[in-house]
Amino acid sequence: MPKKYGTLLDFRKMSIEYDGLDPSNYVSLLSYSWDAILKMTEKKPNMKEYLWPVKDTSKPIILK
Fold first, then answer.
1. Comparing C-alpha atoms, which of 47, 42, 46, 44 is closest to residue 20?
2. How many C-beta atoms surround the C-beta of residue 12 within 10 A?
3. DSSP state at residue 46
4. SS3 of 51, please?
5. Minimal CA–CA distance to 32: which of 20, 21, 43?
6. Which residues contact 51 (CB under 8 A, 6 or more apart)?
7. What is the pLDDT of residues 2-41, one digit of tens each?
């Protein structure tokens, strides 16, 4: 029977070969792909971009 679909180990081997990242170290595919994009573009993450909604942390956030 021919092998149609790759296994998780094949994906892991391919990911380590192409991206240099081991997907078994990530909780989700989203976090893995984010790191792969950052590595591919050689961009350093800026924490101000992640915290843009938080302007002043000394005031409580009130949800209505």
1. 42
2. 15
3. -
4. coil
5. 21
6. none
7. 566 678 788 888 889 988 999 889 988 888 888 888 888 8
Query: What is the model's pLDDT at position 31?
Result: 87
Q: pLDDT digit string (tens) for 44-55? A: 766 666 655 555
Distance of CA 40 to the CA centre of its chain: 12
63 close to 53: Cβ distance less than 8 angstroms: no
> Side chain identity at 25, as an amino acid letter?
N
Distance CA 53, CA 55 (A): 6
- Type of residue at 60: P
Tokens of 49: 């971009």
